[in-house]
Amino acid sequence: MTDRFQVRQLLSGNGTSIVIHARPDNQANIPRRYSVKGTTGPDAETLKTGDSGARIACGVISERR
């Protein structure tokens, strides 16, 4: 579930793809457990996917005609 876009936005332009992850994005709320070279901060995984976990589905969204 998301409020980040509307259906019309998905169907405009040159097409839309979607990737669904196993867990929710942490929205840049970096847990204190992360430490890079002694400084608290995100690791590569959290920078890449927001700690959302494995990709569990993907696809292309298009209008049915």
Automatic annotation (TrEMBL):
EC number: 1.15.1.1
GO terms assigned for molecular function: metal ion binding; superoxide dismutase activity
Substrates-to-products reaction catalysed: 2 superoxide + 2 H(+) = H2O2 + O2
Enzyme class label: oxidoreductase
Cofactor(s) needed: Cu cation; Zn(2+)
Alphabetized UniProt keyword annotations: Copper, Metal-binding, Oxidoreductase, Zinc
Cofactor binding: number and manner: Binds 1 copper ion per subunit. Binds 1 zinc ion per subunit.
Known role: Destroys radicals which are normally produced within the cells and which are toxic to biological systems. May play a role in favoring mycobacterial survival in phagocytes.
Entry's family note: Belongs to the Cu-Zn superoxide dismutase family.
Protein name: Superoxide dismutase [Cu-Zn]
